[in-house]
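Q: Joint fold for the lines below.
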Amino acid sequence: MPLDQQRADGSGQDEPLLRVQDLSVVFPTRKQRLVAVDEVSFSIQRGEILGVVGESGAGKSITGNAVMSLIEPPGFLAGGGVYLDGERIDRLGERSLRQVRGKRIGMIFQDPQTSLNPLYSVGEQLIETICTHLPMSRRQARDRAVDLLTEVGIGSPESRIDSYPHQFSGGMRQRVVIALALCADPDLVIADEPTTALDVSVQAQILALLKRLCRDRGTGVKLITHDMGVIAETADNVMVMYAGRVVERGPVDTVVHDPAHPYTAGLMDSIPPVEKEVQRLTQIPGSMPSLRAIPSGCAFHPRCPHAFDRCRQERPDLMPAGDSQAACWLYARHGDPGGGPEAVRRERRRHAR
Amino acid sequence: MPANRSIDQGDTLVQAEGLARHFDVSKPLLNRLLEGGGRRILRAVDGVDFAIPRGGTYALVGESGCGKSTVARLSVGLFPPSGGRLIFDGEDVSDLARRSGRDAVPVRRRLQMIFQSPYASLNPLWRVGAIVGEPLLAFGMVNTRQEARERAGELLEHVGLGANDVQKYPHEFSGGQRQRISIARALANNPEFIVCDEPTSALDVSVQAQILNLMQDLQREHGLTYLFISHDMAVVRHMADRVGVMYLGRIVEEAPKRSLFEAPRHPYTQMLLQAIPSFANRDRDHSPAQGEVPDPVNPPTGCPFHPRCPHVNDRCRREVPMLQNTRTGGRVACHGVEEGRLTADQARALSPAVA
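A: Joint structure:
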């Protein structure tokens, strides 16, 4: 079996469920190579929810798709590796990939409208997925489908199973999509903006469901979203992306309450708070750079209040910054003139006043 | 109708009285005859009252399908109301949507609208100068295209773009920049009242902050009056003076911003506030919200919120609650609040402002 041949060196006890190492995704165009994901590394343990946050164009969805080898040509994986339980899965052929996609990694997409086939009943879609991945008869698969629908909170599943997607409301459809992702009891679920198309009251229900299911099953989750509130409520660890790079990574409490990277700090402060009133929102000047013109050095330097010479010339990698890691020269050991880690906090305090 | 209608609040610019808009969503007549089934009426907006003082911001918040965008369109005369009245600066303008050209201009030039999607609301075939200059020409505020383009350049600078951007096409701009173009266009005819329908929902948060700050600056500078429509409670809290919470075509609670957020009285408002994801809610694995917005064509009997309400009783299932004044200057449509079953102290305990 090709899966076993590609088992990486010494997958010991502490090998995480998913390990992504220096992953790069490139889209060649006639004029240049667009680097959409640039040497991104992260790992997810069993039962961990890793939040991936960033604004549009940061590369967070492409990172998710790359894990599943779902990059649309002409884009391709230009470097790095993806390891699931120590097995390398980014070089598999289509047939072996089908053992991974849907079976060991489930995927939940943003729009429940487009991720269900309108021409098949919900039951047929669930049964087909179950039969593809598990050795079950249709009869058994149907029973399992009913159980799954019950688990995701759809009332009277025996009668709803033969309904078509359009007969469900938006929230109910997203529950069906979650049931589909969980069909084969995957080890890892990639949820790409799972609640963005939903109303806030439905979002709260879907998030609670996702948290409960993953905790009960010990499933690892990669939760991709642009909403810091969703991350704060759900994730254990957070990875902040900007222009295809990871700029900060750490425990959710640290990243939300005491962000290290100036971009994360700006992002947190630009969100209007619901629990108190502020006079004026802090704004990050400028906008996310285009992939065609990513600035030299640190990609955030043209918008950064603390930028100094080194930021313009040299690209920072993740380095320790308090309880988290940040790709920012403020945290370099040597006495750089940026003002050090305290600069970010001082700036935030100044605005908070 | 002459403009000198006296209204009670001296400085109210826009007032809605029982504003309603019903849509006929029946099948075609022949199908009804052959297949049976009667008319189906969607009461998108069903008797909405609000008053916006000059220079103030009134926000309508609610989930999809609650009718907030229909109110936005009614308020600028894009739809004629099915019932009720819309009063603008003392004049009854309920018939604005039906007024033709010249009759409509004196009112229309005083209102404008900013739409949700900066991608769909700008004509991709027009240069930005033409887009921003169009209201100027339409309302006869300038005479030549040249003047319109010059003025458009000034407006673009005013919203943080460059005067040379008049030459460009919308696709050359990012989402946030396009929304600035929409704002420049809305400002072109010096309106007094701007309806903003989810102006930042399509934008990233850092861009949202830029646009919200810009809108506040412009409001202060020009004394603008906003009707601000949003589904985002946090954005509403930041922008509004007074907030109306809509559910299935009705306002269920309305109050000054502070009391609405610090002591929300209606169970629906409480649910909306508690449902907002945040760090404080990490440990809950049961959602505070249950169910979804029902089909507005077949709304529930009695209080439209009763199937989802934790405090429901028989009266709620039978009788539609009316808006009643509260002691904090708001109005709530809830039998529980009226009967004293739901007290203000309970409300404060449920507010995220205290949590």
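Q: Anything notable?
A: Chain A touches chain B through 48 residues (CB under 8 Å). The radius of gyration of chain A is 21 Å.
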